[in-house]
Design brief:
Elements: H1 2-7, E1 13-14, E2 18-19, E3 25-28, H2 31-34, H3 39-50, E4 56-60, H4 66-75, H5 79-84, E5 90-95, E6 99-100, E7 107-115, E8 120-126, E9 140-147, E10 151-152, E11 161-166
Parallel strand pairs: 3-4
Antiparallel strand pairs: 1-2, 4-5, 6-10, 7-8, 7-9, 9-11
C-alpha cells in the first residue's frame, strides 16, 4: 500500500494514518488471508494493514478468482457482476471507523442497530476499542451513528448519520 500511495497521488494511503479515501468495498486475496485459521484473523490482518478511515466492507476472495473476472468480463460482461454477488466471495463485514484525538476509553460513539427483521439494539463504543455487532450474514441493517463532538464517524466531527449495511460472516 505504501508503494501504491507513493506512485499514485490519487490513492490516499499514509503509513501512519492508514487508508484515508472513501472505499465502499475492498476485496482482498492472498494466502495469508485465505489460509488464516479463522475469518476473524483474516479481518484483523486486513484492519491492521488497511486502517480504513471510512466505512468499508471487507470481502475475502477465498478461491483467488478476482484476477479472472477481467478476462470473463471481456467475453460475458454480466458474469463478473454475478460472481461478485455469489458465495465465491465472503463478505467478512463492514467496518465503521471513528477518528478522534480523545484518550483511549472515552466514549466516542453511540450507535443504534435496526435490523430488517424489526429487532434493534444500542451499542456504545469507547475510543481505541473494536465492537462486533451481532448481525446475521446477509441481513440488511440500518446503523444510526451518533459521535461525540470530538469524533468523526464519516460525516465530520460530531455529525450524526445513518448508513445501511449488510451483515457479513463476522457480523
Amino acid at each position: 500500500l505504501r508503494g501504491l500511495g507513493e506512485r499514485f497521488t490519487g490513492f490516499p494511503y499514509d503509513v501512519q494514518q492508514g487508508l484515508m479515501g472513501d472505499y465502499q468495498q475492498v476485496i482482498a486475496s492472498g494466502a495469508a488471508l485465505t489460509q488464516a485459521p479463522t475469518h476473524g484473523q483474516a479481518m484483523m490482518i486486513l484492519l491492521d494493514g488497511l486502517q480504513p478511515w471510512r466505512e468499508t466492507t471487507l470481502v475475502l476472495d477465498s478461491f483467488h478468482i478476482l484476477p479472472l473476472l477481467g478476462l470473463f468480463g471481456e467475453a460475458e460482461p454480466i458474469l463478473p457482476v454475478h460472481l461478485l454477488d455469489s458465495d465465491a466471495f465472503i463478505n467478512l463485514g463492514t467496518v465503521v471507523p471513528v477518528v478522534s484525538d480523545v484518550p483511549e476509553g472515552v466514549m466516542v460513539l453511540s450507535m443504534n442497530v435496526a435490523m430488517a427483521s424489526g429487532k434493534a439494539y444500542d451499542v456504545d463504543v469507547p475510543m481505541g476499542s473494536l465492537r462486533r455487532l451481532i448481525v446475521p450474514s446477509g441481513e440488511r441493517v440500518t446503523l444510526t451513528l451518533d459521535p461525540i463532538p470530538e469524533a468523526d464517524a464519516g460525516a465530520g466531527p460530531g455529525v450524526k448519520r445513518c448508513i445501511r449495511v449488510k451483515g457479513g460472516s463476522l457480523g
